[in-house]
Design brief:
Elements (H helix, E strand, L loop, with lengths): L1 E9 L2 E11 L5 E10 L2 E13 L2 E10 L5 E11 L5 E10 L4 E12 L5 E8 L4 E9 L5 E10 L4 E9 L4 H6 L4 E4 L2 E2 L6 E4 L6 E6 L4 E6 L6 E3 L6 E9 L2 E9 L1
């Protein structure tokens, strides 16, 4: 078991929290519990359970814990992988407390090129009947050069260009960079009105950007208990980009 603690100064008060990470015999993280700390008292406010198959995250389920100790499902994620071990499809679900069942909310489908680099990603918002696509292009050194983003137009049954992102590298980075791989990250629950959990290495750094490319938030996963709180963000769509070493991760989340 691994424990991490965090402190934040908000509205003149120090808010403390901690997370407990539980592992199986193969050192896979199978459960994470998050707590708030007041004085000497730690209160469980949520947890996530992970199913690992062949060393990969097959599914995860997140729960919240109320002050009365009631446990409520929040989100669920199901992953499928390519033969190379990269995520090919991810399905996100939210919990319908009335029907007491899971409701499919979003689908992510990824395609990779011959060098196992992410080449195309389609994100479908099931409840909003909306689809977005991003295509990625690389330099000869495997650094990402361009990302092109589209939205599906149901009226014309075609993709409409939304934006393009261009990446430039100075001579120093070109000489010393080993080349960055781009992978997708699992995000749950998605959509979310509050906290989301990212399937990222503990030491990864992250950035949250709006669809205009404006930086909204940034930090380190080991300082966030593996979570990002979206509750203060306006409703909308956000990009999350993260990096650990030579690996970049990308994801998209809906804030309700």
């Amino acid at each position: 078991m691994l424990e991490t603690q965090t402190s934040a100064f908000i509205a003149g008060q120090i808010i403390q929290g901690k997370a407990l990470y539980f592992y199986d015999a193969a050192k896979n993280n199978t459960k994470t519990e998050t707590y708030t700390i007041q004085g000497e008292v730690s209160t469980l406010n949520g947890f996530a359970v992970y199913t690992i198959e062949n060393g990969k995250l097959a599914n995860s389920t997140t729960y919240s814990v109320s002050p009365t100790k009631d446990t409520l499902p929040i989100g669920r994620l199901l992953n499928q992988y390519t033969s190379s071990g990269l995520v090919s499809k991810a399905e996100s679900f939210t919990w319908d407390s009335t029907a007491r069942s899971w409701v499919l909310s979003a689908i992510t489908q990824n395609e990779y090129d011959a060098n196992q680099r992410l080449s195309s990603r389609v994100f479908s918002f099931v409840q909003l009947d909306q689809k977005d696509r991003s295509d990625f292009f690389y330099t000869a050194k495997n650094d990402i050069a361009i990302d092109v983003n589209y939205r599906w137009n149901a009226a014309t049954t075609s993709w409409t260009l939304e934006s393009k992102g261009f990446y430039f590298y100075d001579q120093a980075s070109a000489l010393h960079s080993p080349g960055f791989q781009v992978r997708t990250m699992a995000i749950s629950p998605n959509p979310s009105a509050g906290k989301i959990r990212l399937d990222l290495p503990p030491n990864a750094s992250f950035q949250v950007l709006n669809t205009a490319g404006k930086l909204i938030s940034s930090g380190q996963m080991n300082q966030q208990n593996g979570e990002i709180d979206l509750s203060s963000f306006p409703a909308g769509v956000y990009w999350i980009r993260a990096r650990e070493g030579a690996i970049n991760f990308v994801g998209r989340v809906i804030k309700q």
